[in-house]
Amino acid sequence: TFLQISDTKYVNAAHDILQKQESQNTTTPTPAPNGTSIEISNSSRYDCNAVSTAAVLLADILPTLLIKFTAPFYIHKVPYGFRVLVCFFTAVVSFLMVSFSSTILMSIFGVVFASISSGLGELSFLSLSVFFSRDVLSGWGSGTGAAGVAGASLYSAFTQAGLTPQVTLWIMLVVPVILAVSYFFLLVFPSSFPQWRRHEDGHSTSRVVNSQERRPLIEEEDDTETTQEEQEDKHIRPLSFTDKIYIMKGLLKFIIPLGVVYFAEYFINQGLLELLYFSDSHLSHAEQYRWYQTLYQIGVFASRTSLVCFKIRKIFLMSLLQCLNAVLLGFAVYYQFLPNPWVVFVTVLYEGLLGGAAYVNTFYFIREETAKRKREFAMAAASIGDSLGIALSAAAAFPVYRYFCSL
User: Do the Cβ atoms of 276 and 344 come closer than 8 Å?
Assistant: First the structure.
């Protein structure tokens, strides 16, 4: 939860980050021909920043995407304890860089460090979950959902109370500290867990039989059952590059629908919501944007917690519904037919419900339907789905934002 809070705050603060830098970098008013000074006004029918909030999203997701694309092939050589320390230090650096930044570029670099922390942490903790009972995955879903609510709510609450975004980020330095304390002092590991060393060749989750005996990726297997191959652990080699590619092909039916869900929802969040501004509301533009993001995170939290009550196997259905949301809000931006922000509040809450349900159910069924010895790699590799969808949505949001702002 605390790892995700640091990353979530920048997505919710995207409008404020860009607005702050623009105000700091604004030049003096332009002299008019008659000798008076005039301010350059925005002729667009929308209240636009010079840079779309998609720029913050792109900085927030590209490092994560790079890590998730490559790390599953080598990260097993890095001990979990060392990975968490890297997450801790990069999160601290990100808060300090953004809070003290004087340019958009410095702020973006700060977000990049948050992305490294979040990407490495998500991949590592999903892999770590296979060492515990399946109930831990429900806790992971609830925790990451709660992180979104906490990050968005705390940022909105602190800024609404009159604190500057800079002071808010200083206060939130406690987040990575709690992350480190929780992992190293509160988490109870299995007795055989290799905390400060990489997995030895005898560990069953990093094994695979030779290519002639390879079994399908998707297969039912009870946690308590031990196969003959696992009993003969010492004679089984580690997963090869070819084995990992084979596993990833089997994961595509999970990765693609998850990617589509996240493409649609982040296209909404960073490409459209900033343009859904209602000037007759008592909330300012920045306040409306913050509460859009907060309600979205509440929806994510509720649906990620729902795993303990019911499971949804058809992820593609949630992909379709999320795409319909993106189309609806796209038309709402262009035609401006929505009467007030409350309609958007309800829509983004529903959007969050779909996104959170897609995420937690995807990883639940990957865990349940993947051979035990392949789960650690499969959980890490499948995490590329949401990040890839987010990265593509950020790229698509740039031209769409420029188009609308040119109207």
Answer: yes
